[in-house]
Amino acid sequence: MTGFPDLSKxxxxxxxxxxxLRNRVIKAATFEGMTGDxxxxxxxxxxxxxxxxxxxxxxxMAYIGVSADGRGTPNELVPDAExxxxxxxxxxxxxxxxxxxxxxxxxxxxxxxSAGLRGLSPSRFxxxxxxxxxxxxxxxxxxxxxxxxxxxxKRLVGSGFDAIEIHLGHGxxxxxxxxxxxxxxxxxxxxxxxxxxxxPRQVVxxxxxxxxxxxxxxxxxxxxxxxxxxxxxxxxxxxAQMLEKDGHLDAIELTxxxxxxxxxxxxxxxxxxxxMAQAFPRVVRLGFRLxxxxxxxEYPFEETYFLSYARQFRQALSMPLVLLGGIxxxxxxxxxxxxxxxxxxxxxALLREPNLVNEMAEGRTRSSLCVQCNKCMATIYQxxxxxxxxxAIS
Length: 394
Ligand SMILES: Cc1cc2nc3c(=O)[nH]c(=O)nc-3n(C[C@H](O)[C@H](O)[C@H](O)COP(=O)(O)O)c2cc1C
Hints:
By secondary structure, this protein is of the alpha/beta class. It is built from 13 helices and 14 strands.
């Protein structure tokens, strides 16, 4: 394949850095909740085998913590030597179905409060999830976390992963560095944008160095945090330009919102308050119900809801970009391609119908059966699934 990619045919082969994917559809990271006790459960392998069998070009295992204090929920995997053989089985199962496998790696920062921790952040602030102040990053945390990113990426690649996606969004640690509202440091890691972007850029460089040129490296970047005073498009475009210039990434996936302060901004649609409350231990349930309406503020769902922001990035960058958010089927994939995005990522639509890509490649134009009820969000504690995806319905 030479020259510019032909985006008019999303269901044909596509280059993603060193990889050749069978099409331009990527299964977006949807934390699977199938790694309790730090074990890769067989259900996780089946989850991604099913996604791969459904036709995606690449499926993304999520969310993988780089260190114990970087877990966003207690059942997240922090890969160690004991996981290597089961991760290899996962990679083999995906490859057998003709798809590539990516692993989303990150440090949850203050969001680690959901795992019962105090949460780490660039500078100290009152953590609404922990109901106490976060721990500010100390000098020794920088090399420790940088190394944890490299080691985790290396371990995944050693277990057969084809790509690594670095989480720079959703209010997780690296996104907190970018946020002018959260990062109040007065040293070389805070202040102007160059300083706030320093640690995320170092992590991206370290991951690339760790995995080499044969592996695709992507970043999931917030275009806006969706909170007053947070990162917004003007600065985020500049961060993306810095990342493009650094030259370590094969693509940037564009997202927005904050798991810490404004989670529904990520998803749009209904806030599954009752289901989320049910998923929490009894003691937290009442408190959650009291704050839930404000914490899970609703935004109406629209197809390709991030497109108007993402266009600013398309215009400012020449590197491959992945459009995400409200891609529901053939028409929205074609819209993404027509706007110049090289890849389209789908989360909920594929949870609802894992076979959607095969069906679209064979001519299906009707969009997904997902109704954006977002009740899948509450299933991440026991095994992520679409609550409508039962044999009686699908
Ligand atoms: C159940 C569920 C779990 C998710 N887990 C993650 C995650 O671990 N990491 C992440 O970056 N995004 C996560 N997301 C967000 C998705 O990757 C995606 O950004 C969002 O669902 C919007 O895409 P969609 O409209 O195609 O669903 C999750 C979404 C859902 C529904």
